[in-house]
Design goal:
Largest sheet: 2 strands, antiparallel
């Protein structure tokens, strides 16, 4: 079974004082590793720039259209569905039944 203990440092066995453990030497990267990383980084930068340009183009396209306020949209919807009594698309079915027949016409 593995231990979940995480060491917070080292203790000198002779004195019992906390000491700093020697840091491992930094890993040396070869020139080939650096070239590969630089190529990967350039590819990611190109992708990010393409996404930025796409978002900017979309923003400009939507900004060119006049934006309606919420009130204008609700009023247009209200006008599309509210009709004077007796003149709307709904009527009582023939034969004296209580069934109401509606024909919904979508405009827009």
């Amino acid at each position: 079974m593995s231990s979940r203990f995480v060491s917070g440092g080292a203790i000198d066995a002779e004195t019992g004082e906390a000491t700093t453990a020697p840091a491992p030497p930094p890993a040396r990267e070869t020139a080939a590793d650096l070239v590969v990383k630089k190529g990967e980084w350039l590819a990611v930068q190109k992708e990010l720039e393409a996404e930025r340009q796409q978002r900017e183009a979309h923003r400009l396209a939507t900004a060119a259209e006049p934006e309606k306020s919420l009130f204008e949209v609700l009023q247009a919807n209200k006008g599309a569905f509210v009709t004077p009594p007796g003149r709307g698309p709904c009527r009582r079915s023939s034969g004296g039944s209580r069934q109401v027949l509606c024909k919904i016409v979508w405009s827009g």
